[in-house]
């Protein structure tokens, strides 16, 4: 039965976590503890770890951990099927973020399956379509140049703070119509939510975000502007204004989704660039191939996972999954599937075109994928024009924090020395 986004209720199926909450239909030989996203082996080199999963784990296995128990899909083919078939793998209640059951809301549109899903996407899709994001090119390029003006002559920077984070987050706040002077506070909340060590710390971060978003929505109701928050607040699909719950669930989902993923991607890529100066020169020498270069970098350095809930009993690869089971598509591992991407750890700018899963696929594909691609393209153009040779600072520590978005916490760079 379709859910009512205007009157949300918590899902009835359980969220299992730990070895004492393994359902009886799970075969013992498929039970594993992968350590994603908190284990020492994973955090020592997350992408290498996820590439090795094709040797170290079955194609589908049941992962047990403190964050939650779920079937893990690491094959490209299996993830494509799950992400494209919402009737088998639903998004309702699939996001891991804690919510007050007495003030529950759906994350919109990610937790809304068809047919209702489309009415919400239609509100913002024109802004985030390929044609829509091209209108932002001048803004993105100017923000990149302003940031580079501050660091280019210094000969060094901490990339995350100087460029990787402020570029996409500032652009995102421009689009949303939210204040730039709150940028660092917003990022802090997002990091606490997405990289919290336990559900209690995640819950505190969510409380801060909830309080702020409710205030921002009230301000946009009273004072409309051209930003996305205002657009959602005043939307009336099919002539029917959205309810307060729908507005809130939509805005808070975009807020959380827009603050961490792109800068984590930039951190991963710039760390690789700094360690591979010959490949930097290759990129500089191939300006007409930049779209293909961006696509390959996104495949190699994917940063997220995508969860679903089994909507009806199903068998895949001989594995029986029951209604209410949770699954996780380990998207970076899927992009390392050697059956689809031979020599998957190699960065090959001439690799034959295949569907990459950096932004998922299907009806729930990432709304911001075209924006992220454009931001990465402009970041490469502007940075490499100003700083074509750079390296990781000697003795710099590369540390990955646990959480649902994979990227180094800090990237210390030097150049011209």
- Major sheet: arrangement of strands: 1-2-3-9-6-4
> Span between N and C termini?
64 Å
SSE order, as H and E?
EHHEEHEHHHEHHHHHHHHHEEEEHHEE
Largest sheet: 6 strands, mixed
What Rg, in angstroms, do the CA atoms define? 21 Å
Pick out the low-confidence regions: none
The share of residues in helices is: 40-55%
Q: Kindly report the average pLDDT value.
A: 92
Class based on secondary structure composition and strand pairing = alpha+beta
Beta-strand content estimate: 5-15%
Counting DSSP H or I runs of 4 or more residues, the number of helices is 17
Number of beta-strand segments: 11
Shape type:
globular
For the structure shown, list the relevant keywords.
alpha+beta; 45% helix; 11 strands
What does this entry look like structurally?
The protein is of the alpha+beta class and 417 residues long. Helices cover 45% and strands 8% of the residues. The chain is built from 17 helices and eleven strands. The chain has helices at residues 40-44, 46-56, 76-84, 117-128, 130-134, 137-151, 159-164, 166-176, 183-194, 199-222, 228-233, 244-257, 261-275, 277-285, 290-300, 331-334, 369-386; strands at residues 31-32, 60-63, 70-73, 89-90, 156-158, 306-310, 314-316, 319-321, 326-329, 391-392, 412-414. It has a six-stranded mixed β-sheet with strand order 1-2-3-9-6-4, with helices on one face. The radius of gyration is 21 Å and the shape is globular. The termini are far apart. The mean pLDDT is 92.
